[in-house]
Write a structure and sequence with these properties.
By secondary structure, this protein is of the alpha/beta class. 40% of the residues lie in helices and 15% in strands. The protein has 23 helices and 19 strands. The protein is globular. It binds adenosine-5'-diphosphate and magnesium ion. Magnesium ion binds at residues 467-469, 495, 497-498.
C-alpha cells in the first residue's frame, strides 16, 4: 500500500533523529496518539492534512484507523460527529493549526448542541514559536473551550494516552458532546522511550443508568389515568439504541407516538400509531406526555402555550438531569437511560393491564386529523403538473428509493416538507440540520453514513436530499465521495433560491434595475443551475429532472451505481411552498 509505505518511511525518519536511543525503544507523539485512539475504540478519522499533521494521519492509518481526507474541515467535523451518532463512539476530526481548527468550530458547536460525540484533534504551532508570531499560531485551546465538554493540550507525549482516554470518555458519557485535543507540532514529533508510555488507560464500560423504581411506578400511574396520553420519541432515544424496548412498549400499550425529526424510525414511521400527520393536535391536546430523550426547546415549542395545553403533565426521561424542568416543570423527572426505563415502564403497564384501544375517543380525534392531513398532502403530491411542487417530488422520491436507505436531509422547505413524506422505518436512519439548524451538514453526514454502510450494512444506500442553497455550503465533498467510492445518491431539490426563488424572466427583470448587489433579492440564487454537471468533473454524467417519470428513471439508474456518487438535480417551481400552517413554524418570542 503506497500510503502505508510512505508513512513508514516518514515515521522512521522522524524517529531516527534521536541519536541516544536505539530505534526499537523509541516512539513519538504521532504514534502514541494513533495507538491511544485505537485503544479507546475509535475507528474513523475525517480530516484535512497539512503542517503539522501529515505524519499524524499516516500514523493513524498505520495503527489501523480509517482515514478519510475531506475538502473542508467543517464538513470533516460534521462527518466525524455523524459517525459518533451512528456508532456511539466519537469519530475524530483531524485539522491543521489556526484556520484549520477554526473551520471546525461550527462542527464542534453542532455536535455539542445536537448532543453527539465528537473528538477534534488539531495540530498547533511549535511551542517555542508561541508568542512570537508562529505559523498559524492561535489560542486553540481557549478557542475550543466554549464548544466542548473537554479541552486539553497534553503536557508531554507520555501523557497523550491519558488525555485521549479522557476526551473519548467525556465525549460519550452522560449527555454526549464535543472534545478537543491540541497537539503542538513539537509534541507530535517528540520522542519518548516506549516503556515510559503508560500501557493503557482504560475506563471500564459505564453501566447504563437505571431508573428509580418509584418514579417508574408514578409514570405508569400517570399514563394509566391519562385521557389523552402521548409518547414523544427524541433523538436521545435513537442515540440510546432503545428501539427494541420502545417498539415493544408502543405495540403492547397502543399509545400514540410522535417522533422528533431524528427520532423518526426508532418506532417505524409506517406504524399505525405514529401521529406525525396529526402533530399539531397531538401536542396541543395531550394531557400526559412521556418525553423520551427529547428537549423542550424550540423544536418542541418549549412545551408551552399556545402549542401545548398549559395543564399537560410531562414525564421526562433523560440521561442528563440538568435538563429536567427546563422551560416547563415536569410532573415526573426520571434520570435514566431510555432503554432500561422503557423496559421497566412496559412491565409496570403490563401489570396494570394498560392498553389504549383504537376506539378510545383520543384515538378517534387523532385519526380524524391524520385523515384530513393525509388527504391534503395526497392532493398536492398527486398534482404532477410541471414545474413540479415539493410534494410531488418527495412522493416520487419516496416511491423510488430503497426503503431501508439512510436519509440525510437539509434545506428549508426541502427538509421540512421532505420530513413528512420521506419515511424512516429504521432507527438512526435520518440525519438532518438538527437542533442547531445547521446548513452545510449534508455532504459530510452522507460521507460518514456511506462509510458506515460499507462496513456495517453492505448494500444499504445513503440518499442525501438537499435544497439547492444547502448543497452549496459543502458541495465540493462530492469529490471526497468519488475518491472513496461512496455511492451516495445526492438529490438536489432546486428552486433557484433560499426558501423560494425566481424564474428566468423575473430574475432578468429584477436585475435590469441596476447594480446586482442592490437589486438581487437576498434569497435568490442563479436560475436552474446545472448541479448535476459536477459529475462531469469525474467523467460521469448526472441526471437533470423536470418530471416524475424522469425522477423515477434517475433514481433507478443511481441505485444501480454502487461505486461512486450520483447527482440528481430536480428543477421545481421556484414559487412552490409548504402548506399553510395553523401556527408560525418558529414559536414567536413573547418578550
Ligand atoms: P430531539 O432533537 O429529538 O428533540 P434532543 O437532542 O433535543 O432531541 O434531546 C435529546 C436528549 O436525549 C438530550 O437531552 C440528551 O441528554 C438525552 N439523551 C441522550 N442519550 C440518552 C440516553 N442514552 N438515555 C437517555 N437520554 C439520552
Ligand atoms: Mg432552494
Amino acid at each position: 500500500m503506497f500510503l502505508g509505505r510512505l508513512a513508514q518511511v516518514t515515521l522512521r525518519k522522524s524517529v531516527q533523529v534521536c541519536p541516544k536511543l536505539s530505534r526499537s525503544m523509541v516512539t513519538d507523539g504521532n504514534t502514541i496518539l494513533a495507538e491511544s485512539l485505537k485503544k479507546q475504540g475509535v475507528e474513523y478519522v475525517f480530516g484535512i492534512v497539512g503542517i503539522p499533521v501529515i505524519e499524524t494521519a499516516m500514523a493513524f492509518q498505520m495503527a489501523g484507523l480509517k482515514y478519510i481526507g475531506m475538502r473542508n474541515e467543517q464538513a470533516a467535523a460534521y462527518a466525524a460527529q455523524a459517525i459518533g451518532y451512528l456508532t456511539g463512539k466519537p469519530g475524530v476530526c483531524l485539522a491543521v493549526s489556526g484556520p484549520g481548527l477554526l473551520h471546525c468550530v461550527g462542527g464542534m458547536a453542532n455536535a455539542q448542541v445536537n448532543a453527539w460525540p465528537l473528538l477534534v484533534i488539531a495540530g498547533s504551532c511549535a511551542e517555542d514559536h508561541e508568542g512570537i508570531g508562529g505559523f498559524q499560531e492561535w489560542p486553540q485551546v481557549d478557542s475550543s473551550r466554549l464548544y466542548c465538554k473537554y479541552v486539553a493540550r497534553p503536557p508531554s507525549a507520555r501523557l497523550i494516552p491519558l488525555h485521549v482516554e479522557k476526551a473519548v470518555r467525556l465525549a460519550c458519557a452522560g449527555r454526549p458532546g464535543a472534545a478537543y485535543l491540541d497537539m503542538p507540532g513539537t509534541l507530535l514529533l517528540s520522542e519518548v522511550e516506549e516503556e515510559k508510555v503508560p500501557e493503557l488507560y482504560n475506563a471500564e464500560t459505564v453501566k447504563l443508568a437505571h431508573p428509580d423504581p418509584a418514579l417508574v411506578t408514578r409514570a405508569a400511574e400517570l399514563l394509566a389515568k391519562a385521557e389523552r396520553p402521548l409518547v414523544i420519541v427524541g433523538k436521545g432515544a435513537a442515540y440510546a439504541q432503545a428501539e427494541n424496548a420502545l417498539r415493544k412498549l408502543v405495540a403492547d400499550t397502543g399509545l400514540p407516538f410522535l417522533p422528533t425529526p431524528m427520532g423518526k424510525g426508532v418506532v417505524p414511521d409506517t406504524s399505525m400509531q405514529c401521529v406525525s400527520t396529526a402533530r399539531t393536535q397531538a401536542l396541543l391536546k395531550a394531557d400526559v406526555i412521556l418525553l423520551l430523550g427529547a428537549r423542550l426547546n424550540w423544536m418542541l415549542h418549549f412545551g408551552q402555550t399556545p402549542r401545548f395545553d398549559p395543564k399537560v403533565k410531562i414525564i421526562q426521561v433523560d440521561i442528563s438531569p440538568e435538563e429536567f424542568h427546563n422551560s416547563v416543570k415536569s410532573e415526573v423527572a426520571v434520570h435514566s437511560d431510555i432503554q432500561p426505563f422503557v423496559e421497566a415502564l412496559s412491565t409496570k403497564l403490563k401489570e396494570k393491564k394498560f392498553s389504549l384501544s383504537p376506539s378510545h375517543a383520543w384515538w378517534q380525534a387523532l385519526a380524524q386529523k391524520q385523515k384530513a392531513n393525509t388527504e391534503f398532502v395526497a392532493a398536492q403530491a398527486n398534482d404532477v403538473s410541471t414545474p413540479l411542487n415539493y410534494f410531488a417530488v418527495f412522493k416520487a422520491v419516496q416511491e423510488a428509493i430503497p426503503k431501508d436507505s439512510i436519509i440525510v436531509s437539509e434545506g428549508a422547505n426541502t427538509m421540512d416538507i421532505g420530513r413528512g413524506l420521506l419515511l424512516n422505518d429504521l432507527p438512526r436512519h435520518r440525519l438532518d440540520a438538527g437542533t442547531f439548524g445547521t446548513m452545510g451538514v449534508g455532504p459530510g453526514f452522507a460521507v460518514a453514513a456511506a462509510q458506515w454502510c460499507r462496513e456495517r450494512a453492505p448494500g444499504k444506500r445513503v440518499v442525501c436530499v438537499e435544497g439547492d442553497s444547502a448543497f452549496g455550503f459543502s458541495g465540493m465533498e462530492i469529490e471526497t465521495m468519488f475518491r472513496y467510492k461512496l455511492p451516495v445518491i445526492i438529490i438536489i431539490v432546486n428552486n433557484n433560491g433560499i426558501y423560494s426563488g425566481f424564474d428566468k424572466e423575473v430574475m432578468a427583470d429584477i436585475q435590469s434595475g441596476g447594480d446586482p448587489a442592490q437589486t438581487t433579492p437576498p434569497t435568490a440564487l442563479s436560475v436552474q443551475v446545472r448541479y448535476e454537471k459536477m459529475m462531469e468533473m469525474f467523467g460521469e454524467t448526472g441526471h437533470l429532472c423536470r418530471t416524475v417519470p424522469e425522477i423515477q428513471q434517475a433514481i433507478k439508474a443511481a441505485v444501480a451505481v454502487t461505486d461512486r456518487p450520483s447527482i440528481i438535480n430536480i428543477l421545481i417551481n421556484p414559487a412552490s411552498s409548504r402548506k399553510p400552517q395553523a401556527f408560525n413554524w418558529l414559536t414567536e418570542s413573547k418578550l
